[in-house]
Amino acid sequence: MTHCWMCNLGLMPYKEAQELQHRLITLRYKNIIDDILLLLEHPPTITLGRFANPKNILVSQDELKRRGITVYPSDRAGETTFHCPGQLVVYPIMDISHRVGRLREFIHCLEEVALKTLIHFGISAGRLPEHPGIWKHGKQIAAIGLLVSRGVTMHGLSLNVNPNLNDFKVINLCGLPGKEATSITTLIDHNVDIGDVITCTQDTFSEVFDVDLETISTEQVMGDSYAAESASMV
Known about the structure:
By secondary structure, this protein is an alpha/beta fold. It has helices at 14-29, 61-66, 102-120, 184-188, 194-209, 218-222, 226-233; strands at 2-11, 35-41, 45-48, 70-73, 80-83, 87-93, 126-128, 131-136, 139-149, 152-160, 211-215. Helix content is 32%, strand content 30%. An eight-stranded mixed beta sheet has the order 7-8-9-10-6-2-1-11, with helices on both faces. Strands 4-3-5 form a three-stranded mixed beta sheet, with no helix packed on it.
């Protein structure tokens, strides 16, 4: 079992989170820090992956502005996705250069984290071979999008806990016309606190990736002295 830092960042704008990941991915590549798992939520945001078609946004810019939804380009792979409060976002900054199978195995493990977390809440979901992510009754409950740079991962997994599912209708989900989103709360007909899902996700992530998670503070991750502090912690 290897060591991995873990930080719950709370609600963070997508742009800020992407910039933070780029800083961390550089530190990880230089072996200044260990692997680190970021858990967070985003304000309402449409993200456009490297292969995204803007036509998959189904409402006007004025409507997006009225609803407080921003649009932001992402350097991850994939198409158009939607983030919002009530959706747990899991960003592992991990060196996979020495892992057997590397990217394919890493994606499979991320899917396993989602599947095992859902089982904890009584939901048996599955993969669709033709579409990434995790699905239940033909509806997407978890999405996966990644960037790997110099053997280190960023971006990751988003899991719908208790978001407003109507907001997902502003896009073709992952560029797939007619596909819908679902959530843990919807499927079990009972409101689920995202904190409970975070706790479960930490446990399943540790199990699936065989890592020992150690919590560090937001201040350590965000502060200007983080690199120096991390160097002394590794």
